[in-house]
Amino acid sequence: MSTKSKIKMFSSSTNFGDYRVADAELQSHENALQDMKNLTNEQLTDPSTIPGFSEFIHSPPRNRETTPRNALVGKVVSDKMQKTVNVAVERYRIVPKYRKRVKYTRKFMAHDEEEVCKEGDLVMIAPCQKISKMKHFRVHEIIRAKGQL
């Protein structure tokens, strides 16, 4: 195929209206960026004042002061024991040879003093002093109960 026919095919299939839409989107992004530059530090710390923040982020960052160190997030797979829940934590590990990630699950027993966790809940567990042979985590908070969005 000659270069003239390639140019002719490209020019015939190009819709210049798409470029106008792309230019309008670019202009709106530039305006939003200018609005971001004009915000104060107090406004930047509150996500509700940032334009477009709530549309694009799915899980806003948790408060660093209230989140304990080495906390893990997992799903409750068993609540049949007294004051103890079994929490499955999913993690990913990259295999260096193939550069692929492999998901693996580890189950931790966590102390649930009030027995409020049910099977299927998404919980955050935090390390604590060893309570028994297999239990050295406590339930810090229930992030999402089963059946809720």
Describe the structure.
The chain has 149 residues and is of the alpha+beta class. 28% of the residues lie in helices and 34% in strands. The protein has four helices and five strands. Strands 1-2-3-5-4 form a five-stranded mixed beta barrel. A hairpin with a 4-residue loop joins strand 2 (84-95) and strand 3. Mean pLDDT is 78; it is low at 3-18.
Secondary structure layout:
Layout: H1 3-13, H2 16-37, H3 41-45, H4 53-56, E1 72-81, E2 84-95, E3 100-111, E4 122-127, E5 135-144
Provide a brief overview of the structure.
The chain has about 150 residues and is an alpha+beta fold. It is built from four helices and five strands, in the order H-H-H-H-E-E-E-E-E.
Biggest beta-sheet profile: 5 strands, mixed, barrel
Class by SSE composition = alpha+beta
Placed side by side, the strands forming the largest sheet appear as 1-2-3-5-4
The residue fraction in helices comes out at 25-40%
- Helix count, DSSP H or I runs of 4 or more residues: 4
What is the percentage of strand-forming residues?
25-35%
Order of helices and strands: HHHHEEEEE
Uncertain ranges:
3-18
Mean pLDDT: 78
Shape: elongated
